[in-house]
Amino acid sequence: MTPTILEKKTITDRLLISWIRCRRKAWLDLYEENKHKDWSAHRALQLDHQYKSFSALLSEAPNRGIEALKRGSNGVVGLRLKGIGPQGLKIEAHPPLLKKINLGSPWGDFSYIPVVAQQGRRLTREHRLSLALWSYLLEQVQQIEVKYGLAVSIRNAGSLDIQEIAITKKLTNELFDSLKRLYKDIRKDVSPGLIADRKKCTLCSWKKLCDEKANEEEDLSEISGIGAKRKIILQEIGIKNLSQLALIDKDDLTNKLSPYGESHKKIAGQLIRQAKVQKKLSPERLSSSMALPELNSAEGVFIYDIESDPDAHHDFLHGFVSLAKRKDGTWLLDDVKYQPILNLSNHTEEIAWGNIKRKLKSHPNWPVLHYGETESLSICRMAKRQGEEDKEINIIRNKFIDIHSRLKGSWVLPVNSYSLKEVAKWLKFEWSQKGSSGAKALLWWRQCQKAISQNNIKPKQLELIMRYNQDDCIATWKIAEWIIDKK
């Protein structure tokens, strides 16, 4: 038990949100030392989306504090709500926005409802329970029932989605049950175990700490190809860790997975092979045929990587690295040329497309290497939007070589993910900007847009994005080079 620590704590909305995402995260937020915590761009992106959504909702800037609430301001921020929850729990919340509605309260012919910014297309449990908690505490302040809250989200082209979320008795009961379960978790001496679906860990500032624990315990989630559902299935049939999976007979595993469906049954051999490779930390070849035969006759290659804003459906940077081959068949690695093609808004796509076409036609016989299917799909969609004929789009599509697909078809690597970052890291490649990531590049882009709107022609964030994009291109080549060298 850790009562001396817990007695100083109150259950907050931030702690509840952490617990909804991951029970272990809530415990770590409360008790673990911050030196083990890494900064994540995810929170900054959330706040950026929240600011834009709330700005679109309100016709004027919100005011702050309890006095603004009593005066009847249209929007109120900076308010700390306190109250007593189930079993006498002390709870506290800082709702990001309260919006005035025309419903009487002791203050006058108005009252307030909470607002949450919804990032993503789905309304989540996190959104619903946050609204329920803010409503529960707000009722105690304004002495009137809060019947609903708002979920708002700024969308592409500036449109605002607004949903009314009913604060029902069922939702309030779910909130109380969650608060009690959260309190039970944070009173324990040790943190809860790793979350089953570790894909979510990508966004978490405790990822590195949990990665170490997963590696130490040989957690099944560390094996490429095993997600939350498959991990649970393997545990049900008696396989608890990587070593046990690496040792099981293929026919035995196939039979045990049969009741769970064909998709799990037919992947048995692949899972065992991956576990063995990760156990012995040595790659294994799947095929004796060449993985990249097109590069034998190529006089050079383009390496291509896109940076995107998924919420706006906007590819804002198309990065190309040009790499030529010497007559003796070796590559001119000391003469790598990087060209960023910017598409600062969807209105400038025609110009960007013209630059991309010129780039591809400058060496019409060079293949285009990329990592993952995104680049090929995006460039073909762009070509279609710009009126290219199907014949021309097929020519472009056939130039593209997905290094990720070729790698997985020819090798099993001792990595827990075949993402660009994980494979390149295994090959000892390092990005020039420490801690850079796709999320951080997106944050830089959002900051860049703001700077451009303030007439800053070339903000520093643009340079950071381009350097990150260039590193992604070089990382893609390093993986391709490794495949070529293993012929």
From TrEMBL:
This chain's source organism reads Prochlorococcus marinus (strain SARG / CCMP1375 / SS120)
Q: What is this protein called?
A: Predicted DNA repair enzyme, contains HhH domain and nuclease of RecB family
Domain YprB ribonuclease H-like residues, every copy: 303-483
The protein's matches in Pfam families, at most eight in alphabetical order, are given as: RNase_H_2
